[in-house]
Design brief:
Blueprint lengths: L10 E7 L20 E13 L9 E7 L5 H4 L10 E7 L17 E9 L1 E7 L13 E6 L15 E8 L17 E9 L2 E2 L10 E2 L9 H21 L1
Parallel strand pairs: 2-5, 6-9
Antiparallel strand pairs: 1-2, 2-3, 4-5, 6-7, 8-9, 10-11
Keywords: Membrane, Transmembrane, Transmembrane helix
Subcellular location: Cell envelope
Pfam families: Flg_new
C-alpha cells in the first residue's frame, strides 16, 4: 500500500510515477523487484464556485485543482443547493450564465458560477366526460412556470352541461388555474353542472323552463329538484289568484 504524500503548500498531489520525468503513472499491481516511485505535483489553482443567486447559503465554495487540470471532478463534490422555484442548469464561467464551463484546463485562479432556470410544471386538464374544441376527449397538458398561473386552452364542452370550474384531483378542492400560482405538478378535472335556464314569464302561470338537448339522462335527484321548483311556483300562482 502506497503512503500518503506530504503536504506541499500551493501544490496538489497528482499521483505516483515510475519515472523521473513523471510521464509513466504507477499502475497498482504486484511488486516483483525493488521499485522507486516519484510523486508528481502541480501548482494548485483556486477555483471559486458561486451559487449565483440572492440569499444563497453558502454563497461560495473554494476548490483546488492542479495547474492544467479541468475542474469537473472537483465540481462533482459540491452538493447543489435547493432553490425554490428554480432548477440547476449547468456550470458557467460568467455570472450571467451565458458561457458554459465544459472542462477547459484551469491555468489560473478561476471563478465559476452555477446557472439556474426557472422551474416549470405540467398541468393536466381532464375534461371529465367533456370534449375539447378539437374533438378530443382525453386530458390535455399545459406547461406553467413556477409561480405563474397556467395558460389555458379553449374550454371543453359537454351536452346539457355547463363548465363551472376545475377541481384538484389530489384534494378534491376547487382550483382556478387561471389565477392560482402553479408551484408543482398539478392534475385538474373539469367540474360540470346541469345547464338549466329559467326563461322570463310569457303570460302563463309558470316560468318556462328549458333543458338543452341532453346527451345523457338527468339524475333522478335533478329531476326531483326541477319538479319541486315547478310545484312551488304553481302553489305561489294559486295563492295570488
Amino acid at each position: 500500500r502506497l503512503p500518503t504524500p506530504g503536504v506541499w503548500t500551493g501544490h496538489t498531489f497528482q499521483g505516483w510515477h515510475t519515472d523521473t520525468t513523471l510521464t509513466q503513472p504507477w499502475r497498482t499491481g504486484p511488486v516483483t523487484s525493488n521499485t522507486t516511485l516519484h510523486a508528481k505535483w502541480a501548482i494548485a489553482r483556486t477555483v471559486t464556485v458561486h451559487a449565483n443567486y440572492p440569499g444563497a447559503n453558502p454563497a461560495t465554495w473554494t476548490l483546488h485543482v492542479g495547474d492544467g487540470d479541468n475542474a469537473l471532478g472537483a465540481l462533482s463534490t459540491i452538493t447543489i443547493p435547493i432553490r425554490t422555484g428554480w432548477r440547476f442548469d449547468d456550470w458557467y464561467t460568467d455570472p450571467a450564465a451565458t458561457t458554459r464551463y465544459t472542462g477547459q484546463a484551469i491555468t489560473a485562479d478561476t471563478d465559476l458560477y452555477m446557472g439556474w432556470k426557472q422551474a416549470t410544471y405540467l398541468v393536466s386538464l381532464d375534461p371529465n366526460g367533456g370534449t375539447w374544441p378539437d374533438g378530443t376527449t382525453y386530458a390535455k397538458y399545459q406547461w406553467a412556470t413556477h409561480g405563474d398561473p397556467a395558460t389555458m386552452p379553449d374550454p371543453p364542452t359537454k351536452p346539457g352541461q355547463l363548465l363551472t370550474g376545475w377541481t384538484d384531483t389530489a384534494t378534491g378542492a376547487d382550483f382556478d388555474p387561471t389565477t392560482t400560482p402553479i408551484t408543482d405538478w398539478t392534475s385538474l378535472k373539469a367540474k360540470w353542472a346541469p345547464a338549466i335556464t329559467q326563461l322570463p314569464l310569457t303570460g302563463g302561470p309558470l316560468g318556462a323552463w328549458t333543458l338543452p338537448t341532453l346527451g345523457t339522462l338527468l339524475p333522478l335527484t335533478t329531476l326531483a329538484a326541477i319538479w319541486h321548483s315547478l310545484r312551488k311556483k304553481q302553489g305561489e300562482h294559486n295563492l295570488r289568484h
